[in-house]
Amino acid sequence: MSANEESQVLSGIKSILIATDLSGRSDKALARGLLLAAAYGASVRVVHVVDDDQPKSLVEDEAARAADLIEATVKPMVDRLKIATPEIEIWRGLAAVAIAKLAAETKPDLLVMGAHRRQLLRDVFVGTTVERVIRTCERPVLMVNLDADVPYRKALAAVDLSQHSIDALKFASRVEFLGCEKLAIVHAFIPLADGLMRYADVEKSKIDEYVESIADDAHKALVHMLSEEGLAKLDPEVIVEEGDPVGVIKSAVERLNPSLVVLGTRGQTGLKRMLIGSVANAVLRDLECDLLAFAKRAEED
User: Fold this and answer.
1) I need a labelling partner for 246 at 20 to 30 A (CA). Which of 59, 71, 196, 278 fits?
2) What DSSP string runs through 187-253?
3) Under CATH, what is the fold of the domain 154-300?
4) pLDDT tens digits, residue range 126-155?
């Protein structure tokens, strides 16, 4: 048995793709990805994308320097973790497009990325690189914010009873929540008749009773879903709260301080994505912990 196999403690991931832009944010992703590779006994490929909208000589020079830098950065980590040296690939083009294409070709069990630098106005229209990858890539994406020496302890899964959130929860369970020992599941609900009842001057006690009944029904539906999907064995803390999903998730993150947030997403592009956005995009921009996003493409619904 190899040293890597001796250190392996988790199962469910055999291959990891780590995308780096050589920034400090990506260094966190690189370190976390290699640490997960050691825990799962997974193979690793590291990719860096060089912007090809510049003279060819500069592109090739930057590509050579990037490969050398990645190799130098990875070596001490690999030696310490006693894992195989990862493959290094340098692509040319747009980062989000190239990363998604490589992920589609190699089909890693997990794509690991750092929380990329935000660029204000540009991000309003097209999003950060990690946001664009999450909404176009068909592989699970781990967005890393935490230092690799901060262990994963508690996961918070946001569930809306849809198939894509169920799929995300199943995937996270299959890979043992990346090592998290505790799990909480949060579900947001909006009592649709609440506003009408207030407008009609229904007494507050009656409105409260109505909202409580909706919360109870939502809790029962969530527990039933977990049972039907074979996930009741996870024995999670179940949180059902009134409010919009983004606000409820952020509130739960602040209270519970999880290491990892799990979200199911619907991959979308074009005008529809620009107009309606997504819960995942709204949440990930403010997260200080790591995010595991599992995409279900819109055309698969």
Assistant:
1) 196
2) EEE--TTHHHHHHTT--HHHHHHHHHHHHHHHHHHHHHHHHHTT-GGG-PEEEEEES-HHHHHHHHH
3) Rossmann fold (3.40.50)
4) 357 888 888 888 899 999 999 999 999 999
